[in-house]
Amino acid sequence: MFINNQARFIFKKLWLNQLQSVAIPYLCTPNFWKFMFAVVKIAGQQFRVQKDQTLYVPRVEGAAGDNVSFGEVLLTDTDGKLSVGGDVKATVKAEILGQVQGDKVIAFKMKRRKGFRKKHGHRTQYTKIKVTEIA
To answer: Which residues have a Cβ under 8 Å from the Cβ of 67 and sit 6 or more positions away?
Structure first.
């Protein structure tokens, strides 16, 4: 514990200086804002995507190797120019890499001293996609 407010103030000042020395060079690097990204809505969930990124999304119909496009783009950022809402005129094109199952989820219900037990389980279906283009 701190002995007095003076020690608390010194510690806080040192901690803030330490944070600033870590955060400022990271944000000021020349290539930090150089990539294009988009926020797209896929099956009711929002994903932040950029070109050549692979991600798992809720199941999308199609076989491995098929191309899909997602038209519901909520936000795009190109070289620091931000487009939001109705101004966005973009689509995200992706390639399906495969269909996979998530981890097993078990819902177990029990009432003690009654002999009541129910065990339900499921595995969520996901699609692995690779973003090929944001146009």
So the answer is: 93, 94, 95, 96, 132
